[in-house]
Amino acid sequence: MHLCRGLRPCAQLQVASSIEIDRPPEDVFAYLAELVKHSEWQADLIGSTLKTDGPIGVGTRVADTRKVPGGPREMSYEITEHDPPRKSSWRGLDGPVQADGSVTVEPVGDGSSSRVTVELNLRGHGIGMLFAPIARMRVRKQVPKNQAKLKEILERRA
After folding, report:
1. Is the domain 2-156 a CATH 2.30.29.30 member?
2. What global pTM score does this model have?
3. For residues 104 and 131, what is the distance between their CA atoms, to the nearest angstrom?
């Protein structure tokens, strides 16, 4: 049991996964920064809506609509770090299970390929503490599949 925002008890469960993509970090990060295109490679994502104006960066807020047990659910997040073409981080803002995470893009070899690492920390609050382990199992299975789809899309563009 951990203490989360507001010193309330919550369950924290981490998921991490990496994949190599045959595209330079600048290309990979540029595609990842197109938040409204995330549904192209994330199977459970129905769509994303930007809730703030201006370029993508720290403070940008997004509402994702995701397929979850019980039907589609809107989940909002805020970007907390944006360091192109290296790293972007975010924190979940609502819901019984919130995802804080980051995506890191590192050059591989001569820089013509990239290693993409996704780290997610799922936080369950209240009733979400019961759902967080189930969500983590789903996410742990889905993240590598999503990364494989991301790789397919980016390498096809080459």
Report:
1. no
2. 0.87
3. 27
